[in-house]
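Table 4 source record.
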Amino acid sequence: MKTKILSLLTLFPLVLLACSGVTTPAPTVEPPPAAIATASLITAEGKLAPNRATELYFVQPGIIAQVLVRPGDQVAEGRVIARLEGIETLQAELAAARLEQILAQQELDWLHEDANLAVAQALKSLADAQDILREKERVLNNMQSPAK
């Protein structure tokens, strides 16, 4: 109840003031003198922003040696737009890494070939040993069997 009375007492003077008929003058804006002198010239400030923007970065740090596009050019995905200094060094390192990979693959292939050769030799030795064993068993069986 007290809050209702307090609210009414607060609103009552505001209502009286609004209905009193005292008006405050509206602020007027005067154009700057330069705008009056050159009525046909319009000066405005603004900021242009691209419709779509993308953050670009290089995988390797370095200094940009060459920019291959101009501002405003449309760029397709995957297109080279700049080159870094020292690209030759990176290309040489890449070629060296590829060579190391090829050599490692060749060594692995040779190991597999050697392993296959070793398996074949072991199988041949086993077959020879089995032949010798069968021959010796046959000779022994002939010696132990009674003569007819």
